[in-house]
Every structure is written in structure tokens, then in C-alpha cells.
């Protein structure tokens, strides 16, 4: 009898441990994602980032699938837009959204987004630019399946955003997403308890602060992953410092809009 109890205890413990590991690990990439990553037409500047960005695992984590309508917030050079485009396919849509507050940057992010949308095979991509917290018109409510932002959420709090409301932005995203839709945020972690203190100097944000802000808008945390975590990063250096660039401690959070909010 004692042996049986020990066996059951060991099996249960193993099951709990397995569940915990699974919860922290993104699902395996499907064929569509694998094909998007392997696309020979992706520019070298994108593929050179693959080792540190883990695109197959991150797109799988985002839950983006064929036919989805996706918003890539602050798309930069178009890295994620180019991956989402073939995954959602001809029946899907990808909006490369540039906050109007950064439209005047020297890099001309709106022009870059439009150039990505104009690339061959990107007929399902549209470049858009509006103020960060502009409330969407009712006709746009419940239209998106996934809203994604990569290493930029911390910037929404910076002074160059001209006082844009992050709470207003999160509320707008909540309205835009379909019930059951996902809001995915990947960013550089600040030290625990730092909150918003390092968004501008180190370009980092406390993941606990992100959770609190997003949940305040009505979202629930669906899953988080430690795939991009880096215990060697002590959170004291700017993310562009050569000592940590590409090796920062990053968090992955996937929030869900409740089906019956």
C-alpha cells in the first residue's frame, strides 16, 4: 500500500511539473509558420535577427493563424509584419500600425511601413498611422484577432510620445479585439519593483507593471513564457549596450479579451 501511494505521489508530481513547463513554453510552430520563417525572400536584415528573436516560437505563441486580422504595433522595419503576412494568408489582414506620435522620426516609420506593404506578395498588408490612444470608431469594434507589439511597449511611456495615454491605448485595443482575441506584448525586463523608472534611460519596463496596466483595461493574462529570459542580464544596462544587446532579459505576455467581458 505504501509503495502504491509513493508511486501515485511521484506520478502526480511529475504531471504538475510537466504542466508548469508546458505553460512556460510556446507551442511548436506549424507548417505555415515554418514556411514563413524559411521564406527565401525575407531580407537579410530580418533573417540575421532570427537567432535572438526566435520567430517560429514567438509567432506560435501569438496564436496568429490563417484568416486572422492582426495589428503589428510599431512595426519598425517590418520584421514581424513580413512573418504574419503569409501566416494569415489571402483571407487574412495585417495592419502595420505606426503611432502618429513617432511619424516624424528621422527614420520615417510611416514610409517604411508603406514600403513593406508594397512588397510583392503583401497584398494583405496595410500601413496605418493614428495617435496612440485614439479611440476606434464603433465599426472597428471586435474586428481584430491578435494585436502584437515587440520591444516597444516601454516606449509608450516615454516623453517623446507627447503625453499619449497608455491606459487609453490599452482600452482602445480592448475595443478593437474580438471577444477571445489576444494582445501579445514582448519587451525588455526592468528589475523587479522598478515599474516605469527605466523606460526612457534603459528602455526597460517591469513586467508586473505591464500586467497591471493591461489587466486594468479588462484583459486577463492567458500565458507568459520565459523563452527569451536571460538570467545573466542584471537589468542595469541600457538594452543597446554591446554587453547585453540581443541578450537582454525579455518577457513574453499573452493577454486575452474575455468572451463575455
Automatic annotation (TrEMBL):
Alphabetical list of Gene3D superfamilies matching this protein: Vaccinia Virus protein VP39
An example Gene Ontology biological process: methylation
GO MF: methyltransferase activity
Keyword tags: Methyltransferase, Signal, Transferase
Signal peptide: 1-23
Transmembrane segments: none
Name under which the protein is recorded: Methyltransferase
Organism: Luteibacter jiangsuensis
Amino acid at each position: 500500500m505504501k509503495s502504491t501511494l509513493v508511486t501515485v505521489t511521484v506520478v502526480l508530481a511529475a504531471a504538475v511539473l510537466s504542466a508548469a513547463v508546458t505553460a512556460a513554453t510556446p507551442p511548436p510552430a506549424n507548417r505555415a509558420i515554418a514556411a514563413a520563417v524559411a521564406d527565401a525572400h525575407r531580407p537579410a536584415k530580418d533573417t540575421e535577427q532570427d537567432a535572438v528573436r526566435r520567430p517560429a516560437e514567438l509567432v506560435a505563441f501569438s496564436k496568429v493563424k490563417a484568416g486572422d486580422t492582426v495589428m503589428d504595433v510599431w512595426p519598425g522595419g517590418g520584421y514581424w509584419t513580413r512573418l504574419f503576412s503569409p501566416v494569415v494568408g489571402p483571407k487574412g489582414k495585417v495592419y502595420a500600425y505606426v503611432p502618429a506620435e513617432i511619424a516624424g522620426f528621422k527614420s520615417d516609420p510611416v514610409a517604411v511601413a508603406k514600403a513593406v506593404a508594397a512588397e510583392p506578395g503583401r497584398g494583405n498588408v496595410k500601413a496605418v498611422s493614428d495617435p496612440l490612444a485614439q479611440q476606434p470608431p464603433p465599426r472597428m469594434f471586435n474586428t481584430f484577432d491578435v494585436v502584437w507589439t515587440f520591444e516597444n511597449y516601454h516606449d509608450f511611456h516615454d516623453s517623446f510620445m507627447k503625453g499619449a495615454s497608455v491606459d487609453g491605448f490599452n482600452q482602445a485595443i480592448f475595443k478593437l479585439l474580438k471577444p477571445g482575441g489576444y494582445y501579445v506584448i514582448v519587451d525588455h525586463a526592468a528589475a523587479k519593483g522598478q515599474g516605469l523608472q527605466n523606460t526612457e534611460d534603459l528602455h526597460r519596463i517591469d513586467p508586473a507593471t505591464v500586467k497591471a496596466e493591461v489587466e486594468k483595461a479588462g484583459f486577463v493574462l492567458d500565458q507568459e513564457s520565459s523563452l527569451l529570459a536571460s538570467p545573466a542580464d542584471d537589468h542595469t544596462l541600457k538594452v543597446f549596450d554591446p554587453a547585453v544587446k540581443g541578450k537582454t532579459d525579455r518577457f513574453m505576455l499573452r493577454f486575452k479579451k474575455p468572451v463575455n467581458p
